[in-house]
Specification:
By secondary structure, this protein is mainly beta. It is built from three helices and nine strands, in the order αββαββαβββββ. The chain has a five-stranded antiparallel sheet, with no helix packed on it. A four-stranded antiparallel sheet has the order 1-2-3-4. It is globular. The two termini are 25 Å apart. Bound molecules: calcium ion (2 copies). One calcium ion binds next to loops.
């Protein structure tokens, strides 16, 4: 089996910012998670990629941003990051996705060095996706990754979960 790099042709042009410093912080070599999930419920798995940043260089940190790519269903992806409402709130480490409020739309949880964020998916409309202040978890530690699982309360779970 042989693989061919088709990232550029597919529209996935993500380049991770790790903010590598001379101090060689642990998080600089750990970050860069990502996952597949169908945020718009069209049956095609979309791609979310976590960007790092920098805790020591503000200019480098400003270049980092998480990316959400919508799967067009034809082997190409559309970058919908700008309209997704997903913001870069610190050095990103990992992510997981699950329908946390059981409304049929998969939500997104992003872990960072510092404050993690839960983005509630409002009907697959990226512009209306936003961090849920009530669900944000404050932390001063490194949250390397996250995972989700479904524990059915009444027999059957509705959604699958993925994690980085
Ligand atoms: Ca999709
Ligand atoms: Ca949901």
């Amino acid at each position: 089996m042989q693989f061919v790099n088709v990232a550029t042709q597919s529209g996935v042009d993500f380049q991770h910012v790790n903010g590598a410093s001379s101090d060689r912080h642990l998080y600089e070599i750990m970050s860069g998670g990502g996952l597949f999930f169908d945020y718009d419920n069209d049956g095609w798995l979309d791609v979310f990629l976590v960007d790092g940043g920098s805790l020591t260089n503000p200019a480098t940190d400003k270049t980092a941003r998480h990316r959400l790519y919508r799967n067009r269903g034809n082997g190409t992806f559309q970058d919908v990051s700008a309209s997704s409402g997903i913001t870069h709130n610190g050095y990103g480490m990992g992510a997981c996705a699950a329908d946390v409020n059981n409304d049929g739309w998969i939500d997104l949880y992003v872990t960072t060095v510092g404050v993690n964020a839960l983005y509630q998916n409002n009907g697959g409309k990226p512009a209306s996706s936003k961090p849920s202040d009530a669900a944000r978890a404050r932390s001063r530690s490194i949250c390397a990754t996250a995972s989700t699982g479904a524990v059915p309360a009444s027999g059957c779970c509705r959604r699958c979960a993925y994690s980085s």
